[in-house]
Amino acid sequence: MMHDTTDSDLEPALGRSFSLPVPTFSRDVIDRRVEAAIARDTARGASRGRGFRFPRPARLLVGVAAAVLLTGTVVGGGTIFGQLVGDAPLMENVWDRATEINQSSTDAGYTIHLERAAADRQHVWVIMSVTAASGAEATSGRMRVIDANGVVIAPGTCAGTGDVRGVSAVLCGANAPAGITPQGPFTLEVTSVSTAGGDPRDWTETPGHWTFTFDVALTSPFNPGPANATPTHAAP
Amino acid sequence: MELTQRLAEPLDLADTPLDDRLAARARNDPEAFAPLYERHVERVYRYLRARGANEDDAAELAALTFERALSNIDRYRPGGSGFGPWLLRIARNAFIDAGRRQRNRPLDLDEVADLTAPGQSPEDAAIASEERRWIRSLVAQLPEAQRDALALRFAGGLSSREIAHVIGKSEAATKKLLARSLATLKEATRNDA
Questions:
Q1: Fewer CB in a 10 Å sphere around the end CB: N or C, chain A?
Q2: ipTM over cut 0.85
């Protein structure tokens, strides 16, 4: 076929070639996903307004922490997270199947301890605790996981323990991009921590660099357990 | 360079101030994100398709783009290069991440060829379809950076300055890249004709 494209009609031709309509079924897929994301964010409400970070220590689990404080009950290992997983099915599931990493990194007055990690074909799970030298209530903030091929695995579902005796712990499942299976070794980069203020909404973010390198074998997919057992957070 | 001077700025640029207002509202009211989504979903989808994603992948990556944008809306800075370029930067990153293990994937030319505009006669549709297939097959042979620049320009509707922001180059370098892309493509159309 003869195509007589000249200088003057090349750009319009490019415009026409790339002006693809969104097929109805594709639009439906995108609509549903975005509507769900908006609904999740709307439900989460007050957690917005100060830059993305992991959710504050999960309210539902504060009760668990309080129970530990009151009863001295110890479930699992000797670390703080090990003490708190007993009543949270997702955490218990991941905690039990995760590999112990036990690495610490300190910066900007905060020590982050990567306690355990796990990975399946779609996620990398990290379990961290945060301790502030000042004794303030703190939790991990911005983070990302990078796999062996340089694929950035964005943070996804997270749940925290709340502050317990000056330490808080958070479990986060980082979602691999569509169609990509994470491959270790992995690098976890935490670039900020959040510190509680007087008002529950008045948390401040402290930048820093806490980096961990670890490797875990891929396991079968995790069963997240009852949906109401842990709060979730959808993030990039 | 004549081609550089000739690159007309797209006429359908988003209303940046309105985008900024909506983005500011969406920080505290996620439902304010809905009109932002409506305003930009087509350009994001078109950009991903122009990069070579098939319909399913483009839908998945477009959804991922808006999910990430909503989650990171606090990080959007009004008054900068605009919401559209910010969004397309997210889409571009999502495409690159997803494509790391799917390199050299052929363009989905059959799907492109079957698209027809409403009201087109079958003959016009066939000609248009053939043109799309031909142009896209030529674009597919360009270097990655040139394909990306053309997709941002002609599918994403971005200006040179906005493209520069998305790809992390200077505006001058971006104009040169676009001019070079068009020159290469023009040469390809002559050789292929």
A1: N
A2: no
